[in-house]
């Protein structure tokens, strides 16, 4: 009995010890998993969680509840070096990146020559870049080819041509284009420098400059003889000095026109300046529907054969609001021209506005319906002029010169059917007929002769109308002469100053009739 009692007491003791241990363990784990929010926040800030390893470490560190584990120290942050506020920070400049010389993206309508490899330094030849830009612009209707400002482009002889180009292309010139001055670039000689051929709706516009740098050609044309030069006799028989060139080498005898349009319809030129062309500055040949406005031509008054604007076989032309200074005709109207209207133009120096010369080498010439009005001329050789060669055929008719203001013009009004730019020319009976020419309100000053009408014996000038002519002499350095008329018939519709008594009133008693082949 006693032994049984002892065994039972020992079993109860073992059970109680086990129960206490379980309760103690249960309390320890409850405290482990139910800490305060402040303790939890401190723990998250003191160290970063590491997935499952974070909990595994917690269990290991707290395995003995009698000894709390020490918290790990917070990692020290590396402090940046102290900056010296007296010194500016050194910042490396970004590397310069040259824009790629690639054509614009597909579908673009703007083609800048710089994107096609042009340098624009005035030294490197940019001809190929211009050709490449045009080839791209030519394929896109209503595209624009840009010559940007603040650059100078050296460009050799170049042609921008159709007929496969799209219509309504704009050639925007805001920079400067210069011609080469070495004879090698021109070979044996070319008729033009910049050429637009067989295009529809082409515009050349902008604020830029086309510079032909033509003095190398000018010096080779001395002395330059205009057909009316023989009428101008200096008082002291002085002879002008030849033009000096900055270039020593000899240029080809064939001289290029600076800017030419051929076989095109709907041509417009505006805003630009064309200067120092070797020959004509701006030429239209075989074109229809031409508009020129708000542009300028500039070359010395003694630069030979440098017409400002030259029209040939071209009709439906409007020229206005432009300033033309050159060494030959400010505007020259050649054979095949009709429906030409010119107004509000400043001309000088130069040789005035001329119809002709026509009929050279016995050719046929036809010019009709020409109006020149509201024009100012200063220091020009001639004012308004018609000039034809002996031996030619055809006619000039329907001409109006109105409201022309003259300042010290040598020969204000001229019709010359004996035009000759050589020392001597052969006398011939046939001539380009001149009829229906009206001069009204021609006023200002002259320095040689107010009127010179020299018409053919076989084909006299007929229907010449004069009104409102007021021309006063200004003595300069030339011999002065009275009005001259030969075989000129028409009407004086008002008194003239000076009196033009040499004009024959009415019509000639006999007048040779042109054959059907010769009539325009």
Tell me the distance between the termini. 164 Å
Oligomer: single chain
Report the strand count.
31
Mean pLDDT: 84
Write structural notes for this entry.
Belongs to the glycosyl hydrolase 28 family. One of its GO terms (biological process) is carbohydrate metabolic process. The protein contains five helices and 31 strands. The chain has helices spanning 2-33, 37-46, 51-61, 127-137, 215-218; strands at residues 110-112, 121-125, 144-147, 152-154, 158-161, 170-173, 176-178, 192-197, 200-205, 209-211, 257-262, 265-270, 273-275, 282-285, 288-293, 296-298, 309-312, 315-325, 331-333, 337-347, 353-358, 364-378, 382-388, 393-409, 411-416, 433-446, 451-454, 461-473, 484-486, 488-492, 504-505. It has a 20-stranded parallel β-sheet that branches. It has an eleven-stranded parallel β-sheet with strand order 5-8-11-14-17-19-21-23-25-27-29. The radius of gyration is 46 Å and the shape is elongated. It starts with a helix and ends in a 15-residue tail after the last strand.
Question: How does the SSE layout of this entry go?
Answer:
Blueprint: H1 2-33, H2 37-46, H3 51-61, E1 110-112, E2 121-125, H4 127-137, E3 144-147, E4 152-154, E5 158-161, E6 170-173, E7 176-178, E8 192-197, E9 200-205, E10 209-211, H5 215-218, E11 257-262, E12 265-270, E13 273-275, E14 282-285, E15 288-293, E16 296-298, E17 309-312, E18 315-325, E19 331-333, E20 337-347, E21 353-358, E22 364-378, E23 382-388, E24 393-409, E25 411-416, E26 433-446, E27 451-454, E28 461-473, E29 484-486, E30 488-492, E31 504-505
Parallel strand pairs: 1-3, 2-4, 3-6, 4-7, 5-8, 6-9, 7-10, 8-11, 9-12, 10-13, 11-14, 12-15, 13-16, 14-17, 15-18, 16-18, 17-19, 18-20, 19-21, 20-22, 21-23, 22-24, 23-25, 24-26, 25-27, 26-28, 27-29, 28-30, 30-31
């Amino acid at each position: 009995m006693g032994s049984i009692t002892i065994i039972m007491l020992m079993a109860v003791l073992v059970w109680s010890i086990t129960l206490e241990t379980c309760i103690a363990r249960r309390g320890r784990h409850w405290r482990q998993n139910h800490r305060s929010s402040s303790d939890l926040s401190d723990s998250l800030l003191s160290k970063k969680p590491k997935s499952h390893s974070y909990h595994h470490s917690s269990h290991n560190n707290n395995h003995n509840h009698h000894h709390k584990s020490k918290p790990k120290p917070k990692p020290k942050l590396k402090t940046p070096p102290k900056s010296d506020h007296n010194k500016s920070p050194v910042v490396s400049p970004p590397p310069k990146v040259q824009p790629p010389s690639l054509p614009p993206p597909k579908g673009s309508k703007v083609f800048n020559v710089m994107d096609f490899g042009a340098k624009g330094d005035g030294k490197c030849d940019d001809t190929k870049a211009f050709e490449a830009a045009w080839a791209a612009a030519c394929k896109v209707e209503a595209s624009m080819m840009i010559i940007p400002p603040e650059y100078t482009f050296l460009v050799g002889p170049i042609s921008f041509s159709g007929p496969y180009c799209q219509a309504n292309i704009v050639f925007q010139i805001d920079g400067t284009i210069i011609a080469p001055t070495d004879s090698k670039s021109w070979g044996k000689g070319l008729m033009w420098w910049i050429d637009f051929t067989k295009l529809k709706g082409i515009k050349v516009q902008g604020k830029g400059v086309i510079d032909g740098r033509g003095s190398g050609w000018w010096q080779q044309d001395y002395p330059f003889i205009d057909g009316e030069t023989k009428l101008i006799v200096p008082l002291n028989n002085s002879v002008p000095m030849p033009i000096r060139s900055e270039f020593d080498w000899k240029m080809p005898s064939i001289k290029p026109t600076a800017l030419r349009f051929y076989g095109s319809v709907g041509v417009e030129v505006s805003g630009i300046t064309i200067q120092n062309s070797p020959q004509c500055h701006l030429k239209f040949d075989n074109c229809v529907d031409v508009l020129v406005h708000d542009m300028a031509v500039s070359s010395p008054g003694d630069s030979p054969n440098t017409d400002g604007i030259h029209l040939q076989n071209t009709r439906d032309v409007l020229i206005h609001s432009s300033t033309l200074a050159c060494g030959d005709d400010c505007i020259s109207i050649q054979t095949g021209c009709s429906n030409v209207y010119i107004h509000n133009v400043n001309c000088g120096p130069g040789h005035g506005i001329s119809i002709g010369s026509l009929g050279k080498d016995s050719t046929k010439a036809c010019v009709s319906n020409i109006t020149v009005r509201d024009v100012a001329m200063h220091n020009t050789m001639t004012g308004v002029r018609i000039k034809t060669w002996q031996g030619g055929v055809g006619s000039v008719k329907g001409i109006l010169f109105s409201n022309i203001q003259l300042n010290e013009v040598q020969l204000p009004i001229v019709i010359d059917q004996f035009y000759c730019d050589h020392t001597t020319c052969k006398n011939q009976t046939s001539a380009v007929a001149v009829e229906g020419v009206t001069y009204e309100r021609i006023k200002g000053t002259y320095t040689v002769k107010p009127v010179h009408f020299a018409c053919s014996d076989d084909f006299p000038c007929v229907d010449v109308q004069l009104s409102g002519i007021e021309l006063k002499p200004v003595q300069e350095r030339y011999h002065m002469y009275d009005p001259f008329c030969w075989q000129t018939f028409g009407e004086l519709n008002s008194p003239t100053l000076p009196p033009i008594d040499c004009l024959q009133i009415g019509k000639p008693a006999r007048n040779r009739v042109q054959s059907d082949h010769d009539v325009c």
